[in-house]
Structures are given as C-alpha cells and as structure tokens.
C-alpha cells in the first residue's frame, strides 16, 4: 500500500488510496530512549495514539471482559459499574505510559500494574479460581490491544500489509515481554495472532455478565462524564442514544468468530453504521494536522498533567474572594439554618463510598477506594500496604457500627444515620475509621515527606475525578494561613469538618469537590 501521502495533505494521491491512515508520525516529541518513527513508517505507538482508536475502545473492553478471569474480577472487585469513566481513563492512561514512555517510566508502570492487580483474586460464581496475575489472562488482555489497533485498519478499508503488521507487532511484543510473561504464551509473530485469537475465542472466552453489561447496560446507567457537565440535564436522554449506537457498532465490529460462537446477530443497520463511522473517520481524521489527529502522550496522573493542573490550582488559589451581595448573604444565612450533613453524606455515599455502584458499601468498596488512591499516587509496596490497612480499619468500623442486619454490607440510610449519630455522641468516632484513612492518604500524597501538601501533590491525590476549579477552591479553603501549602493538621481538620459541619461554610465542605 502506498504510504507516501503526508497526513496533512488535503488531497489524496491521484487514483490512489485516501491519505495514509497509519502515518506519518505525529508532530509531538518522541519518547526518550525510543527512536521516533520517520515519515511513512508504521508505529504501534502512533496507531494507539490516533483518535480513531476510540471507535474500537468498547470492542476492546468486551473482548477483555469475555475472559472468565477478567469477568470475575470485574464483577467482584472492579468499580466499572459505579465509575466507568474513571475505569476507562485508567486503562487509556496506563496504555499511554506503557507505549509512549522511556524505559524507566515503562518499568515503573509495569510495577504499578503488578501491585494494583496483586490483590485481585478469588473464586467466581461457578467456584473457579481467578487471578488478575494469571499469565495467560494477562497475555490475552495485552494481545486484544494489538488486535484492536489492527482492526481499525481492517474496518476502515485500509488494512495493514504483512510487512507493516510485522513492524507493529515487534514494537508491541517488546513491551509485552517486559512484563516478564512466558515467551511461550505470547504469539511469536504477527502472523500467529489471528490463530491465537480464534483459539482463545473458541476455547476460553465466555459471553458472560460483564461482557453483556458492557454491551447493553452500562451506558444506560452511566453518570454524566465530567467533560459533558454543561449538558448534564440532557445526559439521561443522550446516554440512551449513545448506548444504542455503541452497542450496534460494537456488535458489528466484534470478530466474526466471537459473534458466531455466542450467536450474536450482526444486523444490516449495524453493519452500515460500522461502515459509515469507520470509513468516515478515516476520511476525516487522516486529513487533519497531526496535532489534531493524535492524542497527547501525557496521561492522567503523569507528572506533566499534574504540573499543569497544579499551576491552574495555584493560580486559582490566588484569586481574591468574591464580593457577597447582601441579598445573597441573607439567603445563604437561611440555608445555613438547615443541617447540611445529610445531603453531603448522601452524595458522599453515592459518589465516593459506593465504588461498585450497587447501592451498598462492603469490604470490596473500601478495598477499591484504597486501590484508587494507590493508583493515583504510584506508591511502593510499603505505601500501598499502609493505605490498604487504613481503609480496612475503616471498613471494620463501618461493619461493626452500621451493619445492623448482619448481611456484610451497608446501605445509604444505615451509613448516614450511623455516621451522624456517631459524630454527635462519640468524640473519637472519626478517629477509629475515616480519619485513619485520611491520615494514610495524606502521608502517601506527601511525597517529599515534609508534612505539607503543595498544589501539585494535592492535585495528584484527587486525579481527574474533581474539576480543577473545584480543586482550587478546596485547596484555598483548607490552606488556612494562605501560604500555598496544606499541613497535615489542616487537611485532617478539613476532613473532620466534611463529616461534622452542620453548615456549608466550614473549610472542609468541598474537600472532595462538589461531592
């Protein structure tokens, strides 16, 4: 295939293909230690960074979730139901760090993934053991990433040549083997991948609860993404439309062997939708300048991202307080007469504690919270152990003081009632649970160990869940002396205020954003 037409060219080669769908390289800088491909070369990193990969993202998730080990882990220990967008951000961010980084960043990302998945193991509903560190499972998860990248070319009518597939796969396999996985489990060449996929579909995959929910349920229930908050009132309607389109597109794009084995029907409408979207995206995206065609290499949680957000936070913290109009002050005074704890705790339960989104809190929810803290902060083994121990202690307090029916879980009413009663009648109530977790989070985020959180550390601690403007406001509230740093005492006092303050004027009421 001719790959000589520049991506920025507005006109395709005469009587030839559309502008090259796989190259040339983006004009973002290359990764240290890895040579950037030249014009006309193919690169797995470049293909993974193109925006068109979003069209097969859901296909990727379904293929991964169809593996029994992945499905069991998602059902029992994942937050994808309650926090689907965060789950996707983590997946994409990790992929960027694996394939767009230098050797040291790659090593640290692999170590982080090892620690993050070490605790994901157990027994599924059929009594089968599962582990996120099972080598065969990890190979499948990784190979689906390569398979979906190549599927973009196939589905858009611009398949890679055999030589190009070999180049893509060599680059991809180098990263896979860096995980220390057995060489015998990883397809040796690009030519071996199709047979590996067919064999895994036929012998291992199951179209179970997790895969079906990804296809038909999750988007019908998903909360509004942060980027769409300006139209959040329309989201309940928009998500139904998006869910239908995405389900049809994914069903049409799944491998034929997968659809055949699990009797999934590819309708004419779905096939037409797939053709229009993939061919249309190819025609549009391949004519864009590289700066618009490819995603930035920086992932959420990366130092550069944290620095930019911290700068925004620091700038916002210098903003003088807004003038209060007398009429507004009187209205605010009337609002302060009501106890603000109940609605605050209600939202805290739904958006923070209930990580799995099932309406209850149990040990897995607190474990997931600890996992998310560790993921954001890239802790070592000792740091992770400390955070998990603190959240485990918090769960024990919840279980012993709130689980009135002994079913091993706590609903929203039980949590709110017990928390308000505990704070009202027991001065040490928070010290035996929430404050332990808060202390562990502060110590983990205080990367230089100076007893303070600066804007960068504070920003990394919250990741992308909280809008930068809300982070800035929360930081400014907690920074009582205005020195641009938050002490351990200021942070813990703000955390205490979040649970105990009856009004919304306390310093910690927006500690977690508009939670």
Automatic annotation (TrEMBL):
Residue numbers spanned by region Disordered: 1-43, 311-341
Chain coiled-coil ranges: none
PROSITE patterns membership: EF_HAND_1, EF_HAND_2
MF terms (GO), sorted A to Z: calcium ion binding; oxidoreductase activity
SUPFAM superfamilies reported in the protein's UniProt record: EF-hand (SSF47473)
UniProt cross-references to InterPro entries, sorted A to Z: EF-hand-dom_pair, EF_Hand_1_Ca_BS, EF_hand_dom, MPAB/Lcp_cat_dom
Entries under Gene3D superfamilies matching the protein: EF-hand
Pfam families: EF-hand_5 (PF13202), EF-hand_7 (PF13499), MPAB_Lcp_cat (PF09995)
Residue intervals passing through the bilayer: none
Domain of life: Bacteria
Span of domain EF-hand: 340-376, 402-425, 466-501
Chain intervals with Low complexity compositional bias: 311-331
Composition bias type Pro residues, residue spans: 26-38
The protein's name: EF-hand domain-containing protein
Biological source species: Streptantibioticus silvisoli
């Amino acid at each position: 295939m001719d790959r000589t037409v520049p991506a920025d060219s507005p006109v395709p080669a005469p009587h030839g293909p559309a502008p090259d769908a796989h190259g040339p390289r983006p004009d973002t800088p290359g990764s240290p230690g890895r040579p950037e491909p030249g014009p006309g070369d193919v690169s797995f990193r470049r293909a993974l960074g193109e925006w068109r990969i979003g069209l097969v993202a859901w296909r990727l998730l379904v293929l991964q979730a169809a593996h029994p080990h992945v499905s069991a882990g998602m059902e029992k220990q994942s937050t994808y139901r309650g926090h689907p967008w965060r789950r996707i951000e983590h997946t994409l961010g990790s992929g960027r760090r694996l394939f767009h980084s230098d050797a040291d960043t790659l090593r640290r990302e692999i170590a982080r993934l090892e620690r993050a998945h070490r605790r994901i193991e157990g027994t599924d509903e059929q009594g089968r053991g599962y582990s996120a560190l099972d080598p065969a499972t990890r190979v499948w998860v990784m190979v689906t990433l390569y398979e979906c990248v190549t599927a973009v070319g196939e589905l858009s009518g611009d398949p890679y040549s055999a030589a190009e597939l070999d180049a893509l796969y060599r680059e991809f396999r180098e990263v896979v083997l860096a995980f220390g996985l057995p060489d015998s489990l990883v397809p040796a060449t690009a030519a071996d991948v199709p047979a590996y996929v067919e064999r895994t579909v036929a012998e291992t995959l199951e179209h179970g609860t997790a895969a079906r929910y990804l296809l038909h349920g999750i988007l019908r229930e998903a909360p509004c993404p942060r980027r769409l908050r300006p139209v959040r009132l329309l989201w309940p309607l928009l998500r139904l439309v998006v869910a239908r389109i995405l389900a049809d597109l994914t069903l049409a794009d799944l491998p034929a062997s997968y659809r055949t084995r699990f009797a999934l029907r590819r309708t004419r409408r779905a096939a037409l939708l797939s053709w229009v979207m993939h061919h249309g995206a190819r025609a549009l995206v391949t004519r864009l300048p590289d700066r618009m065609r490819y995603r930035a290499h920086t992932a959420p949680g990366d130092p550069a991202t944290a620095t930019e957000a911290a700068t925004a936070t620091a700038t916002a913290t210098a903003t003088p307080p807004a003038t209060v109009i007398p009429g507004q002050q009187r209205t605010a005074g009337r609002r302060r007469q009501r106890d603000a704890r109940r609605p605050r705790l209600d939202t805290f339960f739904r958006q923070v504690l209930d990580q799995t989104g099932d309406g209850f809190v149990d040990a897995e929810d607190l474990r997931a919270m600890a996992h998310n803290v560790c993921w954001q902060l890239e802790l070592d083994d000792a740091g992770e152990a400390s955070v998990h121990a603190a959240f485990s202690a918090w769960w024990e307090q919840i279980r012993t003081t709130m689980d009135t029916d002994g079913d091993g879980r706590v609903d929203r009413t039980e949590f709110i009632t017990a928390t308000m009663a505990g704070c009202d009648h027991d001065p040490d109530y928070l010290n035996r649970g929430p404050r332990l977790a808060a202390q562990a989070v502060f110590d983990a985020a205080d990367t230089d160990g100076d007893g303070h959180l600066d804007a960068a550390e504070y920003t990394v601690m919250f990741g992308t869940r909280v809008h930068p403007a809300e982070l800035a406001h929360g930081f400014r509230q907690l920074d009582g002396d205005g020195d641009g740093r938050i002490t351990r005492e200021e942070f813990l006092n703000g955390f205490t205020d979040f649970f105990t303050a009856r009004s919304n004027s306390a310093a910690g009421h927006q500690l977690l954003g508009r939670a």
